[in-house]
Amino acid sequence: MYQILLNSPLFRGISPEELNGLFQRINHQVRRFRSGEMLAQVGEDVGKAMLLLEGRLQGEMVDFSGNSLKIEELDPPQMVAAAFLYGPKSIFPVYLSAKTDGEMLVIQKKDFTAMLSMESRVMVNYINIVSGKAQFLSGKITFLSLKTIKEKIAYYLMQRMKFSGNKMVAIEITQTGLSDLFGVTRPSLTRTILEMEKQGILTWSRDHVAVNDLKKLQQILGK
Amino acid sequence: MYQILLNSPLFRGISPEELNGLFQRINHQVRRFRSGEMLAQVGEDVGKAMLLLEGRLQGEMVDFSGNSLKIEELDPPQMVAAAFLYGPKSIFPVYLSAKTDGEMLVIQKKDFTAMLSMESRVMVNYINIVSGKAQFLSGKITFLSLKTIKEKIAYYLMQRMKFSGNKMVAIEITQTGLSDLFGVTRPSLTRTILEMEKQGILTWSRDHVAVNDLKKLQQILGK
DNA sequence: TTTAAATTGTAACAAATGTTACAATTTATT
DNA sequence: AATAAATTGTAACATTTGTTACAATTTAAA
Predict the structure, then answer these.
(1) B55 to chain A nearest CA, in Å?
(2) Which secondary-structure segment (H or E) carries A203?
(3) Which terminus of chain A faces fewer neighbouring Cβ atoms within 10 Å, N or C?
C-alpha cells in the first residue's frame, strides 16, 4: 500500500518514514469492495477522504428522470470526490460504484483535517488537487461557452498552437472522436471543417491540421 | 481592517486575538490601488494571496482576438483568484483591474502556506473556499451541458422545486434576465415558454410558474 | 393620471445543427 | 492481396435557435 501512496498526488514528496509516522498517528481504514458494489449515492454526505488503492470505480451522473447520463471512471491512486469533501455542500455529486474488485484508503474528515494540519506537504498537495479540479472545470466552462462548431474548432486549434507555436497542429484523434469531445454530431463537424477549408482558413489532414489564415481563425472567436 | 477580515470567509471563526497573533508572525502588506489600475494580466503568475478589503475589482476574460468577453466583479471581503493560487498552473485566468479606488491585503504564497499550516481553522476555511468554487463550477457545467432551451427551463424549474418542494416556483427575474442567464435570445426563450404552455407543461406568470405536468417536465431532461 | 420605460408576445426569415442514410475512402486484419 | 472495419464525405430534410422588427401589455416615474 505504501508504495502506491508514495506515488499518489496526495502524498507526493513525502518520504516513506514520514508517511509511516503519519499513519501511526492518524486513524485510517482500508476498505475492500467488490465489483458492482454501490459505494455512495448522490446527495449522500461525503464525510471521509477516500483514496483508491486498487481496482476501478465509476461515477454516474443521474438526471431528474432517473436515467444515467455521463460516466466518469477513476483509477488508482486518485482521490475520490476530492473537491467535495469540504465546501458548503459536502455531498456526493455522482453515484459511485465499483467496476472491479479493489480497495481504498478511508480517512474520516476530522482525521483527514488533522493530517493536513500535521504535514504541510500533504496539505499543499491536497490544495493543489482541489485547485487543479477547479482550474480544469474553469477551462471546461470556457469551452462549453462556445456556441458554434466553428468557434469550438477555432478554440481547439488556438489552444494547441499555443503549445507548439506552430501553425501545424498535430491531431491524434479522429473526427468521430472530436465530434464526441465537442458534443456535436459527426456529420455536422465534418461539414463545418469542409466549410472552413473552402474559406481558406485551414487544411485538415488525417493526422494534422494546417492553419492557413490565422486572422480569420481569430476572428471567429472575436465578435 | 481587522473587522473586515474577521467577517471574511478566509478568517471566519478566528478570534480577534488569534488574528492579531497570526498577523504579527506572518509577512503581509496592504496594497492600495486606484480606479482603472491594471492589477494583473492573463497568464501572469499568481504567486500571492490577495484579499480585497475595500473597493471593487473587475476580471475580464479576453478572447484570442483581444476582445473583452465576460466581466466578473469582485467585492470585499472576497479573495482574488482563490482557486488559482495553487494547482498545476498557478496563473491568472482573467485580466484584473480596479473599478474603484480601494485596497487589498497581499500575502506571498510561501507566507500564505505557512499561515495555513499554523492555523487549522484558516486552512479549513481556505479549502472550503476553493472547494466551493469547484462545486459551483461543477454545477455550472451541468447546466451548460444542457443543449436545448426546453432543457434549461426544465432544469431551472426542477432545481427550484427541490427547495420549495412545491409545484409553484417563484420567479424573481424577468424573461429578459433569464434569457441572459441561459445564454439565449429573449424571443427564443419566450417562444419556448409559450410552447411549453401549449403542451400543458406549465403556466408562466409574471412572478411565478406553476408546473402542471411534472412527468413531461422530467421527460425533457430524460431522453 | 399621464407618460415613459420596460417587458412580453408575435412573426417572417436566416443560420446553424441534428437526423438519417449511404457512398467513398482509408486503415487494419486475416 | 483480399476482406473487413473504421473513418470521412455528402446530401436531403427536420428541428432549433438567432435576427430583426414591431405590437401589445404591464410597470414605473413624472
Answers:
(1) 25
(2) strand A202-204
(3) C
**Measured CA A94 to C1' D15 distance, in angstroms:** 32
How far B134 CA sits from the closest chain A CA (Å)? 4
Whether the beta carbon of A191 falls within 7 A of nucleic chain C: the reply is: yes
Cα A60 to Cα A70: distance, rounded to the nearest angstrom: 6
Give the three-class secondary structure for A111.
helix
Through-space separation of residue B6 CA and nucleotide D29 C1' in angstroms: 42
**DSSP E strands, chain B:** 29-33, 38-40, 48-54, 57-62, 68-74, 79-80, 95-98, 102-108, 168-170, 202-204, 208-211
Q: Which fold has domain B147-222?
A: Arc Repressor Mutant, subunit A (1.10.10)
Q: Which CATH number fits domain A146-222: 3.90.950.10, 1.10.10.10, 1.20.1560.10, 3.30.870.10?
A: 1.10.10.10
What residue segments make up the domains of chain B, in order of their start?
2-142, 147-222
Tens-digit pLDDT profile for residues B92-136 = 999 999 999 999 999 999 999 999 999 999 999 999 999 999 999
Give the pLDDT band (50/70/90) at residue B63: low
CATH 2.60.120.10 fits B2-142, yes or no: yes
The CA distance from A109 to A84, in Å, is 11
Please write the tens of the pLDDT for every residue from B188-201: 999 999 999 999 99
Residue percentage of chain B with pLDDT more than 70: 96
Interface of B with A in 13-42 (CB under 8 A): none
Q: How far is the CA of A61 from the C1' of C10 (A)?
A: 39
- Residues 78-97 on B with a CB inside 8 Å of A are 83-89, 93
